[in-house]
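Worked example 2:
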Amino acid sequence: MSLYSPRLNRLIEALRRLPGVGPKSAQRMAFHLLDRDREAAAQLAASLGDALTGIGRCPKCRMFCEDEACRYCSDARAGHGQLCIVEGPADLMAIEQGTPYRGRYFVLMGRLSPLDGIGPDELGLPQLGALLDEGWVQELIIATNPTVEGEATAYYLAEMAKTRSLRVTRIAHGVPMGGELEYIDGGTLAHALSDRRAV
């Protein structure tokens, strides 16, 4: 038997579905919204409903967008001839905010993981193939994460690009700015050393 009323239990369970939110955190959030800030709770509910009905995916890059014209798919961006492949929207935002890159993107919304049932179709790779066949892409920049699945995805993407004779690059991974070698793990250090470049 639950300790909570049915409505409170549903609220706590809904909050638990958020990443990084466990049972205690969900309970604390629910109690705060109901006891101390019902106005914020109403605003949160309205904003969430509005986002669910008003935000979709761009048919070209798969990024979240509200309008027909996605801000990341303009002709000016295509003029650079670069297409950067990222795993998710947060990765796209990190590149936009932290780098001077202003080419186009393609958002996979995941990475290849056959054990989880995520294959090429789930990542929109047929759609990516059609995009590559348009002829404006000169360089495919692979910016997947350096995990086992991310590396497998990067390999698959590189093979797709190579069959179309496109230049393929992979973002560098290794020692972070300000990092000290003695504190870097062996795998990261080995990767950095093997991907060294001329100065």
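The two ends are 67 Å apart (CA to CA). Strands lie at 56-57, 64-65, 82-86, 104-107, 139-143, 167-170.
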